[in-house]
Amino acid sequence: QWLSDRKKRALQKKDVDIRRRIELIQDFEMPTISTKIKVSRDGQYIMAVGTYKPRVRCFDTYQLSQKFERCLDSEVVTFEILSDDYSKIVFLQCGRFVEFHSQHGHYYRTRIPKFGRDFSYHYPSCDLYFVGASSEVYRLNLEQGRFLNSLQTDASESNVCDINPVHFLFAVGTAEGKVECWDPRTRNRVGLLDCALSSVTADTEIDGLPSVSALKFDGALNMAVGTSTGQVLLYDLRSSNPLIVKDHHYGLPIKSVQFQHQLDLIISADSRIIKMWNKDTGKIFTSMEPEYDINDVCLYPNSGMLMTANEAPKMNIYYIPILGPAPKWCSFLDNLTEELEENPESTVYDDYKFVTRKDLENLGLSHLIGSSLLRAYMHGFFMDIRLYHKAKMMANPFAYEEYRREKIRQKIEETRAQRVQLKKLPKVNKELALKLIEEEGEEQQVTRKRKQKNLPSLLKDDRFKVMFENPDFQVDEQSEEFRLLNPLVSKISEKRKRKLKMLEELEAQEQEEEEEPEGKASDAESSESSDDEKGWVEEVRKQRKLLRQEEKVKRQERFKEDQQTLLKPQFFEIKEGEEFRSFKDSAKKQKLMKKTLGDRLKLEEKLGTLNVSDTTVGSKQATFKLKKTEQQRKQQEAEKQHRQERKSLRRSASHLRSKRGRGRLFR
């Protein structure tokens, strides 16, 4: 989204999805939005209505392009194709107009008394049934060219209607959440279903009264009803209770309900999502959530193609091979889908690399967070792939060489695997592998006697393959945990070590001839490795004694090392103007510095160096005395002594002057 248009066009040439994109029908779109979409009975023409300006477009599937376009005076609520092709069409418009079109174009226009919302065509009698913002159902006979007596319902308004294709039962979905069924022959109501009450179950949460927003018959007995609160109810006409209630969990009105007979699915759609679910169990088969809101869904007959009218110019076409084959006019889709399944390609971003915070820390680029070089996305960032490669090369310059060596080693091992396989022990955990081989041989003997199936070996299992290849998984038999948990291993391990030495010698001798050394565990060894409780307790005690002795030896070695180490004298520097008394003074100062300011003030208050008093305004006044250093004290004492000496000199001088004055007077 931050790329320029020029960069997007350049990326479109590299994008696999765009290069695979197929435009089935040329210019299959509307200027602004599309509201309804239908397919003619012969399957050759696809008709769609939309805005702006209000118009209808007809697309020829044999030519894979648009056949014609007609603009209308007002927006179309819904329309119906009466003939097998596009020669007879009826449009119900929002201005109460009913407009008839023939093959050449506009044919006739009339009005109904109230605003219409839906209509259905009754083929045996050539009647059009209109429902809308009225309690009446208006009937317009196309053979006579006049309105007939309307049907009076109990509802205040009607939203949708449909006619059963088998026995031509007429059903009306009302705003009160009820479905009224009428017989067109007698023009009497023959049934009433309360769908609003049936749609409310223990799991559903609704805000208001559910009204019927979609209605569709399937065969002679089944009928699907969609409500304005997002529930779909499947009925058998012989029962007033629904067979199944499916909730979309979005709380949006159901726009369309279709039946898919090959897999017994119901395709229901609201403005946000299309759900396909089994009509017997209610289990979700799949769901699709387009980018834009959905207005209508049309299922191409006897195929796996699905078309949608959206709140966007482009009308979407979906092909789901499992629902059925592709239509005959685009049969090449079957071959394309097979090729896509055979050659799956993953989406690759050529110009940007997605990195997490941990990746940035490993690369040393965490300081770039917040700059224009990183674009925040989900739990990480997008960065330029060139910068990523440079940083990776600087962080680990020899990574490629190591990767190359590892790949070469794997290729060599793969070529070696194609040769005659020899049963050799792995490089890592040889003793464990030898133990598994011995146990496998014993189990094979037991299974032969009992005629049981052989269990898979750990050495051949891919899940434990790394344990015998990666040296990080090497078992440390000298560790304290291993020795205490496996006390009896010591005896068996010594015998296995001898056996391993023998096998290694045999392998070294027969390496040139590439012969297999045979080494099977004897019955005596297997009998010695029995799990006896007394032997286990004794071995545990021995291992504990050995561990204590080892700890004692380690302590003695540490003690000797401590004795050998000579303590060197440490020198400390004293600041100018301070006298060194003892280390306790410095410790006291450190403790005092660790205390909080409040504790230090309290301490100084006790010593008399600080005085805190309340003022008349309400604030605090603090007076304190500065501490004097030794140098300052000496200087003050010298100054005091100097003052005293000067005073004594002045006194002696004044005394002499007074004596001289008295002598003169006597003379």
Automatic annotation (TrEMBL):
One of its GO terms (cellular component) is small-subunit processome. InterPro entries: Beta-prop_NOL10_N (IPR056551), NOL10/Enp2 (IPR040382), NOL10_2nd (IPR056550), NUC153 (IPR012580), WD40/YVTN_repeat-like_dom_sf (IPR015943), WD40_repeat_dom_sf (IPR036322), WD40_rpt (IPR001680). Residues 348-396 form the Nucleolar protein 10-like second domain. Keywords: Coiled coil, Nucleus, Repeat, WD repeat. Residues 507-517 have a biased composition (Acidic residues). Residues 613-622 have a biased composition (Polar residues). Residues 643-667 have a biased composition (Basic residues). One of its GO terms (biological process) is maturation of SSU-rRNA from tricistronic rRNA transcript (SSU-rRNA, 5.8S rRNA, LSU-rRNA). PANTHER family: NUCLEOLAR PROTEIN 10. This is Nucleolar protein 10. It comes from Baryphthengus martii (Rufous motmot). The lineage of its organism: Eukaryota, Metazoa, Chordata, Craniata, Vertebrata.
